[in-house]
Write the structure tokens for this entry.
Amino acid sequence: MAHQAHPFRSVLYIPGSKERALEKAQGLAADAIIFDLEDAVAHDEKIHARDLLKKTLETADYGPRIRIVRVNGMDTEWGRDDVAAFVGSKADVILIPKVSSAADVQAVADLIPDVPLWAMMETALGMLNAAEIAAHPRLTGMVMGTNDLAKELGSRFRPDRLALQTGLGLCLLAARAHGLTIVDGVYNAFKDEDGLRAECAQGRDMGFDGKTLIHPAQLEIANEVFSPSAAEIDLANRQIAAFEEAERQGLGVAVVDGKIVENLHIVTARQTLAKAEAIAAFRAS
Ligand SMILES: CC(C)(COP(=O)(O)OP(=O)(O)OC[C@H]1O[C@@H](n2cnc3c(N)ncnc32)[C@H](O)[C@@H]1OP(=O)(O)O)[C@@H](O)C(=O)NCCC(=O)NCCSC(=O)C[C@H](O)C(=O)O
Ligand SMILES: [Mg+2]
């Protein structure tokens, strides 16, 4: 399914084994949901979670929220059967964990036709191979797995995420070079609103489309931070108007609020307006 115009400000993980959470998510303000069969599900719950999720996707109404199923790795005893279970289902996307190479994407592509694939970017090798992974023709999105990445790197949590910056940047570059959606990692302290807001702002300023979340209490902040603000929308409109006026006068540069506006800034301004429109359309649907 084409979902480029869809917002991905808030992407909520739900353990596939949690019936109450699966039901509750039908009314939550998430742009997309990751139905997890991987790390949020205990080993002896794996088969039950897969069956429950399959049944839930057939019967529940998640409205316009994008339905993403995170399967277990193809090197586990569950991975291939997970993928097979969602062939021809209502899953909009299959999310592959711990992708380290384009071959990891191809292994899932071989099992399920047509459905777009997303990659969890969370291994050291995955960071080094981000460009070849992003170039895979079936891949339409990336999700940062910052917990696994920190584990692999041996890094400590810091509010500025210094140790993760190289990986975040490499994946962002790869995603943008190939026109993919890319969503930032989770903020584990789900009761810490200020910390979440700061980390969302960092991800937004870097260029991520949104943030993955683990609790409904995190939705509002992510939706707010990753939406264009009223001031940004106003500025975009004024930049476009000023630039069009400059062009009418045969000029290639306008000045708005003391700053130059050229063609490239108009591209950004139009993207801001398009994002605001996509969010409004999503809210209205
Ligand atoms: C973190 C939690 C275990 C907390 O659960 P709980 O103690 O039940 O929370 P609350 O009592 O505050 O819940 C209040 C109500 O909200 C519902 N709820 C809770 N979480 C979710 C959710 N994720 N989606 C939908 N609904 C949710 C509860 O059912 C309560 O409802 P009600 O009965 O009406 O009051 C829990 O939030 C949780 O399990 N979160 C998800 C954890 C998860 O998925 N982890 C895996 C992804 S993180 C990761 O692996 C990223 C990556 O791979 C990496 O490496 O970084
Ligand atoms: Mg992970």
About this structure: The longest helix spans residues 263-284. The longest strand covers residues 10-15. The chain has a mean pLDDT of 97.
